[in-house]
Amino acid sequence: MQDSKDRTETAERASVDGISRRRLLGTAGAVGAGGLVLGAAGGAAGYAAASPDAPAALSTVGSTEVAWGGAHQPGILQPLQARGHLIAFDLAPGAGRKEAAALLKRWSATARRLMKGGGSDAAVARDAGPSSLTVTFGFGRTFFSRTGLEKQRPGALDPLPPFSSDQVDPRRSEGDLWVQIGADDALVAFDALRAVQKDAGQAAKVRWQMNGFNRSPGATAEPMTARNLMGQVDGTNNPKPSEPDFDRRIFVPDSGADPAWMAGGSYAVVRRIRMLLDDWDKLALDAQEKVIGRRKSDGAPLTGGTETTEPELDKVGADGKVVIPLDAHARISRPDQNGGAAMLRRPFSYHDGIAADGTPDAGLLFICWQADPLRGFIPVQRKLDRGDALSAFIRHESSGLYAVPGGPGEGEYVGQRLLEG
């Protein structure tokens, strides 16, 4: 009987230890993935791990708060978030500058409050912490004519040129106002989406809305570049804030900004890119890697090394051909192949179910940030449009370009310098 009791107690301890290790690994992964500091939450996480029957305490994933205001709006420099919502509005007929200013005041107050945690009055996220919630606001080209602010419209908001591979649906493109919501908890993100929609009231109506996701913090043993729905590492060689020319490429300068209200701001290009996953999955692994120019396993260039190794574009294989094909996505999209053009990519994956033909309606909500789309997105997309091997497996179905002003100062609302300047 004693042997049986000992075996039972040993099994129970192993079960608790297993749960502890799994929970603690998840917490450690979350810290690494977001670059977070494990402070007071560490003790709570440890307590929850030792008590498998109790609900897990607020972890670092839930307790992390992104600051509102500052030089730039939130949602640009933060790590990829697990859940995202994009929503565009058109001002209601008869609504103008006055109504737009009142709306931006409401939205800014709501964003500031929700980003601190606790959720809206709807109580959807009442039990959650801030979960890295970010809410970002931008203006589309048509906003300026509808508010009588044509003289303040940036030249960088000129319409994007047409690309031959586009199959853009205008009903899911553009818009007077654009809002990006991101969080590391789906309920927190949805709560913010509902609050933004309700705040619009009679001043603006929804033009289109899209939902996206990324890998959750802590889902991998160590921090790593995200993968897209093709299984490819996606985001290698993204510009880094530590680079000396990062601000110049991504943000409108504080001095000499044209127009002045865009100082510290950035321009967001938003594209819904459907991936033809059934066609992609028919390719053998080596064929997929040649389309991209990188190994699928770890994102390293086909010429060898690791993900961060510079590709040897001139390297020739035993067959006498360059190892990285001339039409490989990684070759064509490199900044040094596009006059130094650079943009900060911060996308979400999406899946909107199965289409009538049985194929998945899935892909990428591509979002890129740059100080000037004429020098960022446009030259790269033009080159991709002319000869990217990946073009056979993707379809650009919607498009938008938005001016995203800098972060609001103390007591300001987003866009105040434009609307009251």
TrEMBL record:
Transmembrane segments: none
Function: Involved in the recovery of exogenous heme iron. Extracts iron from heme while preserving the protoporphyrin ring intact.
Principal place of residence: other
Cofactor(s) for this UniProt protein: heme b
Swiss-Prot/TrEMBL GO biological process terms: iron import into cell
Protein name: Deferrochelatase
Domain of life: Bacteria
Sequence similarity: Belongs to the DyP-type peroxidase family.
Span of domain Dyp-type peroxidase N-terminal: 73-214
First-tier enzyme category under EC: oxidoreductase
EC number: 1.11.1.-
InterPro entries: Dimeric_a/b-barrel, Dyp_perox_C, Dyp_perox_N, Dyp_peroxidase, EfeB/EfeN, TAT_signal
Textual note on the cofactor: Binds 1 heme b (iron(II)-protoporphyrin IX) group non-covalently per subunit.
Compartments reported by the entry: Cell envelope
Domain Dyp-type peroxidase C-terminal: 225-407
Alphabetized UniProt keyword annotations: Heme, Iron, Lyase, Metal-binding, Oxidoreductase, Peroxidase, Signal
Pfam family, one: Dyp_perox_C
